[in-house]
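Appendix B. Chain record.
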Amino acid sequence: MVSRTAYIALAGSTFVIDEFQLYPENAKFDFSRCLVYFGVLFNSSVGVFNPYTQDLETILLPGISGDPALHLGPALPDAQGHLTVLVDAGAAFNTAGQDVSGANIVLKYDLDQREVIWQRDITELITQEAWGGFQDVEHDKDENIYIVGTYPGTVLRVDKDGNGLKPWFLPPADELANTTAAGFGGLASIRERDVLLTNNNADGQIYRFDGVSGSETGIPVLVPRTGPNGTQPSAPIGFSDAVLLPAKYNNTVLLVAEDTAGVWVIRSRDGKWESAETLGLVSNNIPEAQGGQVPATVQIGPDALFSLEEYFTDPMVEGTNAGNRSSFPIVSITAQVDELLRKSR
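C-alpha cells predicted for this chain:
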C-alpha cells in the first residue's frame, strides 16, 4: 500500500518529515531508484527518503558523520548507482568566509555495497586552507565531478574514479585571496549540451560554462537576463545557494534558491542559456515555511517541485551538533512555478 505521504509528495503538496535534527541543506532525487537524498547538514550524514513508504534511512560516513567541524551538503546520484557526496568545513559558512580552515571532502559512495569507494581531501590536496566554502557538486556527460566553492567563487574538477582532482576555475590571485567575498552558490548541469550553470553571489547574476567535459579550465560566460517576455532588465539576485534545472522542463527553467526570499524562476526558452528571462519569485514568506530559509529546491517524481527549509538559529542541543527541531516541512512550489510560466508564455 502507498502511504498518504507518498501521494502528497508525488502529487506536489507540502508535507513534513518527522526526523530529529534532519536539517536538510540539499536534496537530490534519484529517478532510477525513486529516492530522495538529503544532505543532513549538521550531523554530516545522508538521509535517504522513500516517498512511497515514508521511510527515512540514514547513511553514516566513517570518520565524517558526527564531527562537529564538518557539514554535509549534496549527495548526488550518478549513472553507476553511486552517490557523489560533498562534505565541507563548517567554519567557512559560520564566519562568512573569515575562517576557511578545516577539511573539505569529496567522496563516492556505493549504495548497494553500502561503503565509501574513494575519498579525497580537497583541503589537503588543493587549497591548503587558502580558500574554501565548498557547497555543491555536479556531473558532466562523462561523469566528471565539478565542485563549487563560495569563499570566493571557485570550481574544482575530479574524474568519476577520484583521479585528477584539480582547480578548474579560479579567479585572479587577488580575488582568490579575498575569502570574505562570496562567489558561486550552486551548479546545474545540462549534459546534452555539455554546459554548467551557476549563480554568482558576487554580482547576483547567472553564468554559463561551455564545453565543460573537454575543457582543461572553465570560462564563465554571463547569461544576460530580462524580465518576463523581455520587458525590462532583470535585477540582481540576492544571496543564493543551490540551483536546479527541473527535469520536467527539459533544461529550460532554472530555480535559484535565495536564502531569505524564496525561489527565483528563470527561463531560457530554447534551453541554450545564451540569454534568459527572470519570470518572478516564489516567496518563502508563507506559514508552511515555519520561518525557515531556502537552501535548495528538488523535483520529486515526474512533476512535483519543492523547496527545502533550513533553520540556522535553532538552539543547539547539548551534547549534539544540531538544534532541537524534529519536524521539517518540504514545501510545495509546483503550482507557483507553473503559474509564472503560464503567465509569460
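Further analysis of this model is presented in Appendix C.
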